[in-house]
Amino acid sequence: MLRFINDLPKVELHLHIEGSLEPELMFELAKRNHVDIPFNSPDEVKAAYQFTNLQSFLDIYYQGANVLITEEDFFDLTWAYLLRCQKDNVIHTEIFFDPQTHTGRGIAFETIIKGITKALTKAREELGISSQLIMCFLRHLSEEQAIETLKQALPYKKDIIGVGLDSSEDGHPPEKFARVFDMAKQEGFLAVAHAGEEGPAQNIIDAINMLHVQRIDHGVRCVEDPELVKNLIENRMPLTVCPLSNTKLKVFKEMKDHNVVSLLKQGLCVTINSDDPAYFGGYMTDNFVAVAEALPTTKEDLAQFTLNAIEASFISDTEKKRMTKQVLDFVANYA
Ligand code: HPA
Ligand code: ZN
Questions:
Q1: How distant is the alpha carbon of residue 192 from its chain centre?
Q2: pLDDT average per 10 residues of sequence, the chain (335 residues)
Q3: 163: closest CA among 197, 133, 130?
Q4: Which of 307, 222, 299 is nearest to 269 (CA)?
Q5: pLDDT at position 285
Q6: Gap between the Cα atoms of 212 and 200, Å rounded
Q7: Which of 58, 67, 164, 333 could form a disulfide linkage to 29, CB 3.0–4.6 angstroms apart?
Q8: In angstroms, rounded to a whole number, what is the distance separating the alpha carbons of residues 86 and 62?
Q9: CA 11 to chain centroid
Q10: Nearest alpha carbon to residue 320 among 36, 44, 91, 1
Q11: How far is residue 69's CA from residue 254's CA, in Å, rounded to a whole number?
């Protein structure tokens, strides 16, 4: 099973590039940029990753991002993640970035986007990994700041497929961002939003009705509203679920309590993703393995997570067909 999971072609739809900053690279960049960090070694950083909820993680995650200053830093960060994709047989990835985490510290939007896109281009050419980029608004900041960020993104429209919404769900419901999502839609961006991670099922309903999203990120609390679950099934509304993230942030006590396999068997378009792999203890393969070890799954179930992710991705129908065939051939030929 482990070999099957490792070799299975995978598609990632929920990955914050800042959340792929490994402690070792954090240290290297802190040194290179003369940035003070309150740790003496990468091991000390790792020891600090004891989270009780989403906010306790976000505080450390934003602090870690302070070492990212130059275009080269954003390139190195993204390239390191893409090399992990290659190792895990990730064939396509749709990456979130949080511009406000950096522009708020005086880093130019151009610096961020150039560093990231250079790595994405190199991965397309040298690793055969395709990708899209999704710009997230930080929901703890104001609507006005989100609108300003959208304006900064307009010159880079060709590099950014959609907008998203992340950070503290509690106290910052989807309706706060209805207008900026409308503006983004008018500019041609697709839309996704984190909802129903720590927040209630109503946030999922509001993200669909007020933000007109194509996918829900997390969404695991949908089960609290059976009518919503029925709608998600009927409309094939994708949920980008992050199993290791959910157990690390105590959304579920243990992996055996996680609902991702149950949702799959009910016919929801659920996918498996790594969210912030450097902070939550694992990349794509690790997440698949954690699910398969704790919950009853067949090889077909695991392959279905990839097939769902292909269906839910922001790539052309031709590319979807090609990747679907790649997965089905892999399963058929697996001995
Ligand atoms: N939820 C909300 N905000 C985030 C997350 C998440 O899982 N990861 C990075 N920012
Ligand atoms: Zn996330």
A1: 11
A2: 96 98 97 94 93 95 96 98 98 98 98 98 98 98 98 98 97 98 98 98 98 98 98 98 98 98 98 98 98 98 98 98 98 90
A3: 133
A4: 307
A5: 98
A6: 18
A7: 67
A8: 27
A9: 11
A10: 91
A11: 37
Query: Is 166 a pocket residue for ligand 1 (Cβ < 6 Å)?
Result: yes
Q: Write the Ramachandran bin of 155: left for phi over 0, alpha for psi from -120 to 50, otherwise beta.
A: alpha
Is residue 203 within 8 Å of 196, Cβ to Cβ? Answer: yes
Residue whose pair of structure tokens reads 């990994």 in the numeric block:
129
Provide the CATH number for the domain around residue 12: 3.20.20.140
> What is the C-alpha separation between 313 and 159, in angstroms, rounded?
16
The answer to pTM > 0.85 is yes
What sections of 109-161 are H helices per DSSP?
109-126, 143-153
- Ligand 1 atom, smallest distance to 276 CA: 8
Atom in ligand 1 nearest the alpha carbon of residue 198: 1
Helix, strand, coil shares of the chain, percent, nearest 5, are 60, 15, 25
296 half-sphere exposure, CB direction, 13 A CA radius: 2
> What gap in Å lies between CA 277 and CA 243, rounded to an integer?
11
Return the residue matching tokens 């609108």: 147
* Residues designated catalytic: 197
How many domains does the structure of the chain reveal? 1
DSSP string across 196-213: SSSS-HHHHHHHHHHS--
**How many Å apart are CA 189 and CA 158, to the nearest integer?**
10
Q: For residue 240, which of 202, 197, 210 has the smallest C-alpha distance? A: 197
Ligand 1 pocket, residue 73 CB under 6 Å: no
Q: Residue 288: which residues within 8 A CB-CB, separation 6 or more?
A: 5, 8, 10, 272, 302, 305
Residue 275 CA to ligand 2 center (angstroms) comes to: 5
Ligand 1 contacts CB of residue 198 (under 6 A)? no
The amino acid occupying position 51 is F
Position 159 scores a pLDDT of 98
At 103 the pLDDT is 98
**For residue 167, how far is its CA from the centre of ligand 1 (angstroms)?**
5
Supply the range of the domain harboring residue 282.
Answer: 2-334
